[in-house]
Inverse folding.
């Protein structure tokens, strides 16, 4: 079939790979000038397990707080009524229990296996590292994690509760000066460079025949027949199928087809710095549960990521949030990163639906498929979601159960 993909972030690129692998003629439309230039640019890089990733699902972390010194989400310049309504729904769902958590974690585990298979088959070095520690400053942090940890166990994920001394052995660079009540070790976890993986995969798929139309904005989707209307062109381009993988642009394209999605952009920050001293830096990835901040080793760099803002894409960087990233990095790995030069600070969107889960599957319109709304789990879910979509397009049953991840729930 002749298939169009809208969006060349990590979701779009992995989808292009799987569809091309199945023998389809694939064209990817991307308004930016390169792959992974938007929400996939400088992410935390966390792969599975998903449920312990900050802002993965409502109810999987300490409740979102809007006010005070310990606030976990802020209303930034440009926030609107829709953002506040979305946050209200997120907090309401957090009180209802785990929802799709176990099914989503199984998808994340399936996706991790697929990511590693692809990397091995094509010899892709995307700065991957195994293992993760969840750092507990207090016993209350442990209590906040119990729902997520139970879901992980239900999904068959290895979870090990360890003391501070054992955590220090796994991550020798951890500062002994910062109080540590204990840690959760996730030996099967992984992390890596999301943008690098997307770029390497784009290069391979492009060499294999996938067409990438960069700097090309899709203004609307066409039906009967299905296709895409590109900015500056009078006639829509026809395809046998279209897969929408465009993050927040998905929400803008679907209402014209009477398919509204209650998405919003929750903006987060990352600071990437050159490695300074290997023995003082993280060897893999850690998550400060209380601060909802991750610190990840990516090759010769260290990346610390966190923060949550509702507002506009062009809002100024919030200095206190960035300072909190630096402070958390210094709490746990002082001297591990070179902060005097070569530092990159990034603010990017996580496209989130109120229940935290993506939409994967049929749109209800013949030929139009959805693979969007992955939020903080974009990298963690990308390869599995892409394989599942390719199977659905080919009218095969996916290897992973997608119940609860379709459009019908809205």
């Amino acid at each position: 079939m002749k298939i169009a993909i809208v969006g060349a972030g990590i979701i779009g690129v992995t989808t292009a790979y799987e569809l091309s692998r199945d023998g389809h003629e694939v064209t990817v439309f991307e308004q930016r000038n390169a792959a992974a230039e938007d929400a996939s640019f400088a992410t935390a890089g966390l792969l599975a397990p998903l449920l312990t990733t900050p802002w993965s699902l409502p109810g999987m972390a300490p409740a979102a707080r809007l006010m005070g010194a310990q606030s976990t989400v802020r209303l930034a310049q440009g926030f609107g009524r829709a953002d506040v309504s979305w946050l209200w729904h997120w907090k309401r769902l957090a009180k209802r229990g785990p929802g799709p958590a176990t099914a989503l974690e199984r998808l994340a585990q399936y996706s991790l296996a697929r990511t590693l298979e692809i990397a091995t088959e094509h010899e892709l070095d995307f700065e991957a590292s195994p293992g993760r520690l969840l750092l507990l400053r207090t016993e209350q942090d442990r209590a906040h994690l119990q729902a997520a940890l139970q879901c992980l166990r239900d999904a068959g994920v290895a979870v090990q509760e360890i003391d501070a001394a054992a955590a220090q052995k796994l991550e020798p660079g951890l500062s002994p000066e910062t109080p540590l009540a204990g840690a959760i070790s996730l030996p099967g976890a992984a992390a890596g460079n999301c943008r690098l993986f997307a770029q390497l995969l784009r290069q391979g798929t492009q060499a294999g025949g996938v067409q990438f139309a960069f700097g090309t904005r899709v203004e609307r989707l066409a039906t009967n027949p299905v296709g895409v209307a590109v900015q500056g062109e009078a006639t829509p381009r026809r395809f046998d199928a279209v897969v929408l993988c465009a993050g927040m642009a998905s929400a803008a394209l679907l209402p014209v087809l009477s398919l509204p999605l209650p998405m919003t952009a929750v903006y987060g920050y990352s600071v990437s710095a050159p490695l300074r001293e290997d023995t003082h830096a993280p060897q893999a990835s850690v998550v400060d549960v209380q601060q909802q901040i991750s610190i990840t080793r990516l090759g010769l760099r260290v990346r610390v990521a966190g923060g949550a803002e509702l507002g506009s894409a062009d809002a100024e960087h919030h200095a206190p949030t960035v300072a909190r990233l630096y402070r958390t990095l210094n709490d746990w790995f002082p001297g591990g990163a070179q902060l005097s030069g070569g530092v990159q600070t990034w603010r990017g969107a996580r496209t989130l639906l109120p229940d935290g889960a993506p939409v994967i599957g049929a749109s209800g319109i013949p030929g139009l498929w959805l693979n969007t709304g992955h939020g903080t789990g974009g990298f963690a879910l990308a390869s599995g979601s892409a394989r599942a979509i390719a199977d659905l397009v080919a009218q095969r049953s996916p290897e992973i159960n997608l119940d609860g991840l379709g459009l019908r729930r809205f």
